[in-house]
């Protein structure tokens, strides 16, 4: 009787988790329910994060958009984004990260290795980032990121990603708040099932912002007086 009671309690506790997982899978497999208009898919009111998705015409993989109001100056938030060598401390499911080349004070190239979902080979990607500095007229700074799949020879068994293209935008909201926006599209290359790719596109941007919220409060970013490695301000 005791064993039966324990089993019943275990099953009852598992039901909400199972229902949540099934709901996630239904959403991930059901990307055809999305349109080419942004749809809010997650709203974390506690952390002021909103995540959106859409399915552009002619594509099977969803695009993503993330918005977050961060309690830190724009410069501190950008410091976290510019510090490639520290990405493994906070970026979602990242196995390796390194700066390959600083092209100029407005451009750099870096390399990432992503831990893929179970049953899929891990992915690597080479990315080119171009900084568009803040001006008072624009009211924001942004970084355009695009994949360079042929920049390095393939590194089997890693699968080279064909796209991890994003536009990251920093908008100051007063002295100590920043609107962080990230909009983009990922093509993992290889033969990954569409639902697993959509799973990553749903989880990764949100998880990365949660990590950034933690990192930006560290003194090395929040209180640093070191020169920024890239030109965040036009003047």
From TrEMBL:
- A Pfam family it matches: START
Q: Which SUPFAM superfamilies match?
A: Bet v1-like
Determine if Magnesium is one of this entry's keywords: no
Question: What are the entry keywords?
Answer: Signal
What is the annotated signal peptide range for this record?
A: 1-21
Q: Which InterPro entries match?
A: START-like_dom_sf, START_lipid-bd_dom
Please indicate which superkingdom the organism of origin belongs to.
Bacteria
Q: Where is each START domain found?
A: 25-204
Does this entry carry the keyword Signal?
yes
**A GO molecular-function descriptor:** lipid binding
Provide the protein name. Answer: START domain-containing protein
Q: Which organism is it from?
A: Fluviicoccus keumensis
